[in-house]
Amino acid sequence: MSLEVAAHDKGVSQAFGGEPASYTRFSIARQTDGDNSHVEMKLAADEDEGGEIGRPEHLHASMPPPRRNGKNLCFIIMAAVLLLLIGFLIGYLSYRGRMQRVNRCLEGSGNCEMTPTASYFSDDGTEEEEVPGPRILNWPDLRNMLSARLSTTRLETNLRQREGKDSFEAGKAEDVNTANYIHDQFISFRLDDVWNDEHYVRLQDKGSSKNQVFIMEDSQEDLVESPDAYVAYSKSGTVTGKPIYVNYGRKEDFQKIRNMRIPMNDSIIIFRAGKITLAEKVANARKEGAVGALMFPSPSNDKKADSYVPFGHAHLGTGDPFTPGFPSFNHTQFPPVESSGLPYIPVQTISREAAARLFGKMDGAKCLEEWESRIMGCKVAVSSNSKMTVKLTVNNVMVDRKILNIFGVIKGFEEPDRYVVLGAQRDSWGPGAAKAGVGTAILLELAHVISDMVKNDDYRPRRSIIFASWSAGEYGAVGATEWLEGYSTTLHTKAFTYINLDTAVLGNLLLFEFLEIGLQTHEDFCEPIAVLIAGDNYEEVGNYSVLIFCSIPLDLDNAAFPFLAYSGIPVVSFGFYDEDDEYSSLGTTEDTLANLKERTSMLYPLMHTVAEVAGQVALRLTHDHELFLDLDGYTEELLSFQEKLWRFDSSVKALGLTLNWLYFARGDFQRAADALRRDIANSDRENRIVRRALNDRMMKVEYDFLSPYLSPKDIPFRHIFFGKGSHTLQSLLENLEQLGANRTSVDVKDLKEQLALATWTIKGAANALVGDIWNTDNEI
Q1: 236 pairs with which residues across the strands?
Q2: Is 651 helix (H, G, I), strand (E, B) or coil?
Q3: Which of 205, 347, 455, 501 could form a disulfide with 231 if both were Cys (CB 3.0 to 4.6 A apart)?
Q4: Which residues are CB-contacts of 186 (< 8 A; sequence separation ≥ 6)?
């Protein structure tokens, strides 16, 4: 379950305010040769050779054994038992005294300078020798230590690394130089381990000549725009068609065009940025029979940005689209396949000025009132007798490049094989101050500060912290996704949270992009997170007031998305934005440090606050004994989903099907969640083995909502809540709604498969929560 669900828990004070107890475990020391299976005792006579059963040869075989005094033997046994009892009592009282001292320290009743011991598990599952661990810090002290060390000056220095440079395109010189710089910085911080991940990926670059957009009238070509920017993974070629404007390019926008009876076959669709990703807009246009697509930025208060043209990508997915489901460690080793998410039509971005020129030539119906939104002269299409068309030429070329992901780790002293990952995109088509510079600067600062706490304060997290710098993020989280694909069989059992640092400062409003479900009000979730940042007065963050607001969506362009929807790893993504006035320079060649500072005068304090939030989340997750899970989040969402299905019972029964099995699976999940909650409440929190087992059960929840019946190569985003495809609960609901509207329009076989996929995925998640198969409720 994701951290955001934990924060929504009504018992959030336990998650972010309660202080955990410490514990110390003991184990038998191993032999130097690795054998710790037994302790051997020998008699002195055993050292001599010869004789029967170790007896000396000079003793006669018939010599009677020495006579033993029964009273003496009884006395010896009683004395031994008494000594053992005394030793046990002394050891117990000593252990209890140390535990009480630890608990008093963690409750804040005294200064704690404890140095506990920690046990480890070797690769074969055996428990290793206890070794001295770092001193235990209570949470308030740890939080204050982080805050005191974070430096606004260092953040500024890190961000200024991008000044005076035009591009950090993935796999090119500046991207590689920055990768080497980050690698050297990680080494200088003396992290426990630093390494590179190389991937050979297929990207798209602009061709030798620029892409072009023309207005065609009476065989005359009028060049509208020939921008430097391009859309990666667009189909190359030239197409011509009548222009049709479809607002944001959402499904409901296309439905309104259909209601207006405007044919969209062989057209060039125009839409504005926002609401959904460019790739989703293009996919919707292609379904309507469009031959090409154009996108312009949404209007903003920054008039000089009217000429800006953003870069983008049109792959409806993440990662290298030419090795779907496979890691691109060497793409020549994999079959020549292509992602089904490629657009297969030419796509280009244009400026607002170019869009205005196109609208000026269109003589059809005006835009719907709700579509205009500061777009002057907005038109939907051309009239039936108009000869005006749009010609689009795309000259993009495919290139093979090597990209580098850079990693550094601080290993946990107790569970080094469990880790939280903090990551940031490094590459950008332009200067990328906001797109990649801010996140990279924060990543370096957190690595520096937390490693400094380890070196100078004898601090050590219980679990590991990984710092990751990704390349090719502009092309759809390629670097991050290829890493996930390379270790897909193990990462979900190791990584318990991904914290995304990309585009963390775009304005002055603190916006949490947590992927929450079943959350009815933003306040329920935001307030505990704000308290985590700033204490009791949550409107005071850092040295200034800030409005805190939460948002639900997390889209394909967010690097956190594949962690959740592909790998089943909980995610956190947040930052400062201005929702009503987007940062127009983002994704363009104008995303410079100067423009970003003009956007917000508090750039560096805001970066400091983001670093503090991300650092506190990471430290808290690696500090406490247990992970936190709001089991009610998914339980309530599944119950809400079931309530939406009730009205379709009769329609489903008419097809000879039933929804009962799906309801049973939902009930199984709720009972399993209740059982896990009881296990957590009744467990011995000082017992490390028990706590680890409970944590592992929690970590399974998100992963087990990935449908196990689908191929990650064909359908990578298998999550039934947040994925993409017919296996999702949303798709099932839409199909049932269609069944109610028009029974003949629904394929019964497909509906039956959808019900089966949903039922057994939910049942599988319930089984994972239960833990042991003999405790499973077999009501299904």
Answers
A1: none
A2: helix
A3: 347
A4: 194, 406, 407, 408, 447, 467
Residue environment code for 400-418, b if the CB has 16+ CB neighbours within 10 A, otherwise e: ebebbbbbbbbbbbbbbeb
Domain stop point among 565, 590, 623: 623
Mutual angle of helices 438-457 and 139-149, in 10-degree steps: 120
Collapsing DSSP to helix, strand or coil, 544 comes out as: strand
Instruction: Please say whether the beta carbons of 445 and 614 come within 8 A.
Output: no
User: Do 389 and 403 lie in a common domain?
Assistant: no
| Burial state string for 156-188 with b = 16 or more CB within 10 A and e = fewer than 16 | eebbebbeebeebbbbeebbbebbebbbebbee
Instruction: Please give the Cα distance from 425 to 443 (Å, whole number).
Output: 10
Query: Which residue blocks in 487-559 are alpha helix, DSSP H?
Result: 491-494, 522-534
Compute CA distances 85 → 24, 27, 74, 80, 82, whole Å.
22, 20, 17, 9, 5
Task: List 423's β-bridge partners, or say none.
Answer: 468, 500
Q: Is the Cβ–Cβ distance between 627 and 420 less than 8 Å?
A: no
For residues 536 and 564, is the Cβ–Cβ distance under 8 A? no
37-75 burial: b if 16+ Cβ within 10 Å, else e: eeeeeeeeeeeeeeeeeeeeeeeeeeeeeeeeeeeeeee
Domain assignment of residue 425, given as a range: 141-201+399-623
Mean pLDDT of the chain: 80
Tokens of 178: 């920055």
H or E element: which one contains 575? strand 571-577
If asked whether residues 487 and 568 sit together in one domain, one would say: yes
638 and 716 within one domain: yes
**641 and 765 inside one domain:** yes
- Record the tokens describing residue 306, joined without a space: 């009217």
Condensed to tens digits (0 to 9), the pLDDT of residues 582-626 reads 899 999 999 999 999 998 888 999 999 899 989 998 999 999 888
pTM for the full model?
0.80
For residue 532, give the nearest of 613, 435, 456 by alpha carbon.
613
Q: 509-512 and 463-470: which strand pairing?
A: unpaired
Judgement on whether residues 660 and 709 belong to the same structural domain of the protein: yes
Between strands 347-349 and 292-296, the pairing is: parallel
Long-range contacts of 216-224 (CB under 8 A, 24+ apart): 216/240, 216/388, 216/389, 216/390, 216/391, 217/361, 217/387, 217/388, 217/389, 218/387, 221/391, 224/350, 224/354, 224/357, 224/358, 224/390
Specify the DSSP element, H or E, that contains 391.
strand 389-394
Q: Distance (Å, rounded) from C-alpha 185 to C-alpha 724? A: 38
Residue percentage of the chain with pLDDT more than 70: 74
Residue 540 belongs to what H/E stretch? strand 540-541
Structure tokens at 402: 């090597």
Q: Where are the beta strands (DSSP E) in 43-155?
A: 117-118, 131-132
End residue of a domain, out of 105, 120, 137: 137
| Residue 439 binned pLDDT confidence (cut-offs 50, 70, 90) | very high
Q: What is the pLDDT of residue 86?
A: 63
β-bridge pairing 220-225 and 231-232:
unpaired
Count Cα atoms within 13 angstroms, Cβ side, for 323: 25
Cα three-residue angle 87-93-97, rounded to 5 degrees: 145
**Maximum CA extent, the chain:** 128
List of E strands, 110-267: 117-118, 131-132, 193-205, 212-217, 220-225, 231-232, 237-241, 243-245
The CATH number of whichever domain residue 378 belongs to comes to: 3.50.30.30
Count the neighbouring beta carbons within 10 Å of the beta carbon of residue 236.
Answer: 14
Q: Give the residue among 770, 764, 518, 771 at the shortest CA–CA distance from 665.
A: 764
Residue that has been written with the tokens 């798709």 in this structure: 731
Check whether 532 has a pLDDT greater than 50.
no
* Residue of higher predicted confidence among 97 and 136: 136
From the list 584, 770, 777, the residue with the least C-alpha distance to 678 is 770
- Distance of alpha carbon 433 from alpha carbon 550, whole angstroms: 24
Assign residue 730 the CATH number of its domain: 1.20.930.40
The amino acid at 489: T
